[in-house]
Amino acid sequence: xxxxxxxxxxxxxxxxxxxxxxxxxxxxxxxxxxxxxxxxxxxxxxxxxxxxxxxxxxxxxxxxxxxxxxxxxxxxxxxxxxxxxxxxxxxxxxxxxxxxxxxxxxxxxxxxxxxxxxxxxxxxxxxxxxxxxxxxxxxxxxxxxxxxxxxxxxxxxxxxxxxxxxxxxxxxxxxxxxxxxxxxxxxxxxxxxxxxxxxxxxxxxxxxxxxxxxxxxxxxxxxxxxxxxxxxxxxxxxxxxxxxxxxxxxxxxxxxxxxxxxxxxxxxxxxxxxxxxxxxxxxxxxxxxxxxxxxxxxxxxxxxxxxxxxxxxxxxxxxxxxxxxxxxxxxxxxxxxxxxxxxxxxxxxxxxxxxxxxxxxxxxxxxxxxxxxxxxxxxxxxxxxxxxxxxxxxxxxxxxxxxxxxxxxxxxxxxxxxxxxxxxxx
Length: 426
Fold this sequence. Notes:
Layout: E1 5-13, E2 18-27, E3 30-31, H1 39-56, E4 66-69, H2 72-76, E5 88-92, H3 94-97, H4 100-111, E6 115-118, H5 125-128, E7 136-140, H6 146-158, E8 162-166, H7 171-179, E9 184-186, H8 188-192, H9 207-215, H10 222-230, H11 233-243, H12 257-264, H13 266-279, H14 287-306, H15 317-326, H16 329-332, H17 337-342, H18 348-356, H19 359-372, H20 376-386, H21 393-412
Parallel strand pairs: 2-4, 4-5, 5-6, 6-7, 7-8, 8-9
Antiparallel strand pairs: 1-2, 1-9, 2-3
């Protein structure tokens, strides 16, 4: 059966802040790019991407700057107009640059105010002729030499363009891009990069982890949860603040931990307590931390939703949620993941899956990582092993991403200390 996937990967500036996201796509068992072997494949892939974006561009992809490579077929289908011009960068490569009809469309979009980027820039006349109408120049770290990167960055900056280095897979490539004054970077290493750790390993002894496990049990004990929260002043404060925020404000304010739990519900509390603890620790201002907290959420949701379709799994959906949530802890806590997990009361199958990639839990985790990294072969292989229909993956992925976005917005929404209009009028 044909596989059609669309993945979103972060592009970060040199301070670690998110500049935007690249939309990477694959259709009809063929990567959708200038390497397509036949017009039939390109038409089919264009239909895949266009139909997906028609359904999702106004929700999942809204509110961020999306970098997307457009082929002639997508340009002809007027796909860029599915996006607001402030939220899209139209990426083009050599197959478009040498195509007169394609460039006619690109010029038209540029005049309308859409931003343009050129992939794998070359010092050739056809590329240099575009410099007046483009915003971003992109280079591939695998193919570009130091001299090429340095010269391209200098040209970009002399004309007020930004230079992005893609396909960064190692710390050495990352440091080189930074030293050569690139404006932004992307690739597997960048997606995993965080400058500093949020907490020391002693943080593992806090109530937070015990609370996280208590909340993810199939039958949570409300009394235990209330007791754990009550023992932590920071969690208690933030829980009451959240329960009384504009998102949950009822006729009467929650004044006790129990009332706050009942106001939010265990489902919302389970999803937020991880971020409440880490985001409010006050120990780290690294802009990459926010992205890692979101990634924890995304992996947790993705693992949990994939469990609905995976066969012969030795863990529950709650445990799968924990597996995704805790998969980034070695980046947030200053200790190896194996050592961190030893401190936590989670299933051995989860620990072995995360640390050694063993068993069906390891397969599930590898599927999530393969999807993040746009590893098409890995996605197909792991999905088949787990019995998950691959045509469901993109929809599950973007539904999870949208849910995580909504939850994050609610969590980080500024608390407004105001009394509802009708409070106290009884």
